[in-house]
Amino acid sequence: MSRSRFEKLNPDKQHRLIESAAEEFAAKGYEAASLNRILEQAGMSKSSLYYYFDDKADLFTTLVDRSLGLLFREIGGFDASTLTEDNFWSEMEALAQRFTALGNSNAWYVKMGRMFYRLRSDPAHSAPTERSFVAARRWITDILRKGQALGAVRTDLPETLLVDAAMGLGEALDLWVLNHWDEIPDDARLRMANDQVGLFRRLLAP
């Protein structure tokens, strides 16, 4: 997709299309979601859709991008400039708690996460998900560098290895939590958020 094309679309039309896609994906799941139903609800032609998006996977990934932006706004963002050596890991725990609490209160984000990883696991359609992973990798790299500067993150291994390890652990935790979400009570999920940050700390702290 040419992101510049979509961003130049009338904001009301952008919103209507994203809202229609969100409703369809939430109701039907990724595989069963119908572009025709999305287009009918949004009042857009198929030719117009393909001017802005490559395919359904591309539309879904844009929806994920927008949802992540909304998610960060709802949890209050994250100001790395406030981190210190003493509060670095406790702030990571607080961030994980806010993400988990939002999932507890709004199941839409859990559904989105499940659909995102199903799409990513499909070699034929996984390419659009790379945009989100590139952004995640950039964020993790910046946080690890900040932690190293503060003395809260180890410096004895190559940066790329630390980032790869953090990305791998994060993806494994995401998948496990999403697959078992419905089995875990809300309060247990919140406790697990701290345990998961503890795994990162044992991996990355000096």
From TrEMBL:
Pfam families found in the cross-reference section: TetR_N (PF00440)
Record-annotated DNA-binding residue ranges: 34-53
PROSITE patterns, per database record: HTH_TETR_2 (PS50977)
Molecular function as annotated in GO: DNA-binding transcription factor activity; transcription cis-regulatory region binding
Membrane-spanning intervals of the chain: none
Recorded superkingdom: Bacteria
Start and end residues of each HTH tetR-type domain: 11-71
Keyword Transcription (UniProt): yes
Keyword annotations: DNA-binding, Transcription, Transcription regulation
InterPro entries xrefs: Homeodomain-like_sf, HTH-type_TetR-like_transc_reg, HTH_TetR, Tet_transcr_reg_TetR-rel_C_sf
KW DNA-binding (keyword) present: yes
SUPFAM superfamilies (alphabetical): Homeodomain-like (SSF46689), Tetracyclin repressor-like, C-terminal domain (SSF48498)
Cited Gene3D superfamilies: Tetracycline Repressor, domain 2
Protein name: TetR family transcriptional regulator
Organism: Hyphomonas adhaerens MHS-3
